[in-house]
Design a protein that fits this description.
- With about 240 residues, the chain is α+β, with helices and mostly antiparallel strands.
- It folds into two domains: about 50 residues, no CATH class; about 180 residues, no CATH class.
- About 15% of the residues lie in helices and about 30% in strands.
- The chain has a nine-stranded mixed sheet.
- The radius of gyration is 19 Å and the shape is globular.
């Protein structure tokens, strides 16, 4: 977790601090290394939120973009209590999913958070199996890191497609994660570049349509810190 309660206040980890889990109230210890974002861990194995899974640097970077007030937000609804990864300033829930997920988990989270939620999936694990291409001819260039480098080397500024009906892209997904076909909330896939791929049709199938949305645009729309957009690009 990025935050714990320190002397009654939600705070980031620091080397000498002592914290308490805001959910289960057990003792937490700071993890302050040189290579990963500083974070907290339970001192002992405890029964915390049943939905909680070990986090990666990818999770922590995305949470940082939305800040201390808007991530790891405890919500209580219909007698249940869970920690939302991100609750935006507009009240939207963003759930970050790095590991494989089952149907029961998708359905239970969407039921708990309601219609005002979206998923961001870490697509780096299946990037080699996911190919996109324009639905029709276009004068704009398709973004790739290689094309960006080529443009800089040859002294010109590429013009990328903007989001719009006419700029939807087809995708081919080899060995798709079929369970996602049951999701009712919006789903965005993060392949590690400057964009999120928003699934419009065909989620969980081998063919469908979507659109690239810049991470900066997404962050601005949902009230995050746009100056931190570079921290959610090319996460190792």
């Amino acid at each position: 977790m990025l935050y714990a309660i320190v002397e009654g206040v939600k705070e980031s980890a620091s080397p000498t601090s002592k914290g308490q889990c805001p959910f289960c109230e057990s003792e937490m210890v700071p993890k302050c290394g040189d290579f990963k974002s500083w974070h907290w861990a339970h001192k002992r194995v405890v029964s915390c939120d049943a939905w909680y899974k070990p986090e990666t640097e990818w999770h922590r970077r995305w949470k940082n973009v939305f800040g201390i007030k808007n991530c790891e937000v405890i919500l209580i609804r219909a007698g249940q209590k869970h920690i939302a990864d991100i609750q935006t300033i507009h009240g939207r829930i963003i759930e970050l999913q790095n590991s494989p997920i089952n149907l029961e988990t998708i359905e239970s989270r969407e039921k708990f958070y309601g219609s005002n939620m979206i998923w961001i999936i870490n697509g780096i694990h299946f990037i080699e199996n996911f190919i996109t291409y324009p639905t029709q001819g276009t004068e704009f260039d398709t973004y790739t890191p290689e094309f960006e480098k080529f443009a800089k080397m040859h002294g010109f500024t590429p013009k990328y497609r903007m989001l719009g009906e006419e700029n939807r892209e087809r995708f081919k997904w080899k060995r798709p994660k079929q369970v996602w076909g049951h999701a009712k909330a919006q789903v965005y896939i993060d392949f590690g570049n400057e964009f999120l791929f928003f699934i419009i049709q065909g989620l969980g199938t081998s063919n469908g349509t979507g659109a690239n949305i810049s991470k900066k645009q997404f962050i601005i729309e949902h009230g995050g810190d746009e100056s931190l957009v570079s921290t959610v690009i090319n996460i190792k």
